[in-house]
Amino acid sequence: MIGKEKRREAAIQKELLLLQKQEEKLAAAAAKASGGSWKENLERKLPEKVYEGLQSAFCKGFTLVFDKGRTLIEKSYDKEGLREDQRIRDYAFQVKGGRRELKQLRKSARQSELMNLTATTVEGLGLGALGIGLPDIVLFLSTLLRGIYETALSYGFDYTQRSEQMLILKMMAAALSTGQEWERLNREVEQGPPPPEQITEASFQAQLQETASVFALDMLLLKFIQGLPVVGLIGGAANPVYYRKVMRYVQLKYHKRYLLKL
User: Fold this and answer.
1) Sign of torsion, CA 84 86 91 96?
2) For residue 236, with 0-12 CB atoms within 10 Å meaning exposed, 13-18 middle and 19 or more buried, which class applies?
3) Using CA atoms, how far apart are residues 68 and 55, in angstroms rounded to an integer?
4) What gap in Å lies between CA 178 and CA 22, rounded to an integer?
5) Please, what is the Cα angle at 162 between 157 and 163, to 5 degrees?
6) This prediction's pTM
7) Residues 132-186 pLDDT 10s
């Protein structure tokens, strides 16, 4: 029994060490991230009214998908199947206590990533070629949230809880933030979900708008370009890039929470 416990603890520590190295890379990337001079130059040339209109549309789309679209998103995957699979893999680790079982769990949590990446790439390029930008926001965010919800289930976390939803919003914002803002949000994510009694409807809506604004400011120009025929392919091609960036952060944090909970 003692040998099994030591093997179990050693496996967890090795996984945590791997995650620590990945976190250090994310922190370094966030510290030196830049939007690029071409992007900044184009943003300065956007008329203020156009910019405000695009940002408002983006935030409304984000709020609609996150707050109202969960039921529809859940119809696109096997929720109970993911829960059952997680329980089986969790039990396998409890019994065998090896790193192989942790790797299998990590692999299982990412098994739908290729399908989601393909979906958001096809929809982005297709609508971009047609010069359709803002409607793609709803489709992109739906695919992204599906990936996040599947990841949460794969690690045994209930994303329907308000406190977990608050954490998801913080993770999404952190994934696209840079500099001191990334450091602040990452610290808040590390603290885990806030206690339910501390979450008011006002505080939740404030976080929802903050996260929507982070996405809007970072993706706005590309979605504006996507609204232009032919050249819109550039904006549409950004979908998989953003998907991978957000999911890399979210998957890392969920895996870390699972390990610390063991």
Assistant:
1) positive
2) buried
3) 19
4) 16
5) 65
6) 0.83
7) 445 667 778 888 899 999 999 999 999 999 999 999 999 999 999 988 999 999 9
Residue 181 phi, psi dihedral angles, 5° rounding = -65, -40
Q: How many CB atoms lie within 10 A of CB 259?
A: 17
Residue 31 CA to residue 98 CA, distance in Å, equals 35
Q: Which amino acid is at 235?
A: G
Whole-angstrom Cα Rg for the chain:
19
Is residue 19 a contact partner of residue 256, using CB atoms and an 8 Å limit?
Answer: yes
pLDDT at site 157? 96
**What percent of the chain stands above pLDDT 70?**
75
Burial of 223 from C-beta contacts in 10 A (0-12 / 13-18 / 19+): buried
Gap between the Cα atoms of 158 and 234, Å rounded: 36
Burial of 171 (C-beta count, 10 Å sphere; 0-12/13-18/19+): buried
Q: Is pLDDT above 90 for 91?
A: no
